[in-house]
Design a protein that fits this description.
65 residues; mainly alpha
Length: 65
């Protein structure tokens, strides 16, 4: 079964939880590695979504001129 892609809001919330877990200092080294990998994926996802929205907004604004 294919996983649905997270929304921007979901990704940011997951990132917040990961940061809180890391800042707590209680993570096992193996879990820390997995959390950092997941955070990297989520940051990339958020950047892509922000870029796409930025391009769409620019296009709409250009059409108004």
């Amino acid at each position: 079964m294919a996983n649905k892609e997270e929304t921007y809001k979901e990704a940011v919330e997951k990132l917040r939880r990961i940061v809180a877990d890391i800042e707590s200092g209680d993570l096992d080294v193996d879990l820390l590695s997995e959390k950092v990998k997941e955070a990297t994926r989520l940051v990339k996802l958020c950047k892509e979504k922000l870029y796409k929205v930025d391009e769409e907004v620019k296009k709409v604004l250009e059409e108004l001129e």
